[in-house]
Here is the input.
Amino acid sequence: MSGTRPYSGLIERLKNAGLRPTRQRLALSRLLFEGEGAPDRHVTAEQLHGEALGNGIRVSLATIYNTLNQFTRAGLLREVVVEPGRSYFDTNVDDHHHFFFEGSGRLMDIPGESVQLQQVPAAPAGAKVRRVDVIIRLEEEE
Here is the structure.
């Protein structure tokens, strides 16, 4: 479609998620959803910060964390916690699981239908299961 603005798809995506399309959100959205490795990316806040600086986007690491958390709450990203204090943000929000390569820290998607769970324990009183995440930890052979 010629004549469309370069950020028009991202603006709509943010608005549909209930987020105001600020300049920083648009710039970070472009890196996340249209950058290298798109559409399915797994990035840490630190990786995204480095990409932003490398692309001339002046933004603090705190702003990166805030934006990633806002995008996650709005359903644009999924947080994958691989260990305490170490999270990746996944642009694929469809039902799926992950291989985690412990040596390199790389995440790789596993289609949701590839993991079969026989039974999930009942949630404690006053809670309900929202999602089940399976992370298969791998040690790379030398």
User: Anything to note?
Assistant: The domain at 1-92 is CATH 1.10.10.10 (Arc Repressor Mutant, subunit A).
